[in-house]
Amino acid sequence: MGIIKAICVSSKKGTAKQTASSATLVVDHGIEGDAHAGKWHRQVSLLSWQAIEAFKARGAIVTHGCFGENLVVDGIDFAALPVGTRLSCNTVLLEVSQIGKECHNHCQIYHTMGDCIMPRQGVFARVLKGGLVRPGDVMDVLPAATDCPEGTAP
């Protein structure tokens, strides 16, 4: 179980995301109004609050959204979850579709710190069921659909 600490969105790709007080997640699209939403496998990006805090302890000056993450969650080690894991929050159901990402041109954080955590710690998910999420909402980790006993899939 985890707690959403921040929601971040941007209307344009290639810019840092800004915090928002809530987000509407749309089935097979992503976060309404976010530039990275669309009909593909990286509809929502998630990063653990612990990973961000550990990076800040190394001297990084970052705020929520600097890594391009949509949801910052306290208490879930996303990088340890296998692809297919499902995440539930209110009526929203996400399915982890990718762990990390290749950093082709190295972001500003990498150029400043010599490292960036998103390629190793960030995960991406598809939206299976939509709804509204806010900071403070509880997120639960569910097994992948193929791991659910017959008749118990979320």
Automatic annotation (TrEMBL):
Residues in MOSC domain copies: 18-142
Identification of the protein by name: MOSC domain-containing protein YiiM
Top-level lineage group: Bacteria
Organism whose genome encodes this protein: Desulfovibrio desulfuricans
Name of one Pfam family that matches: MOSC
GO molecular function, one term: molybdenum ion binding
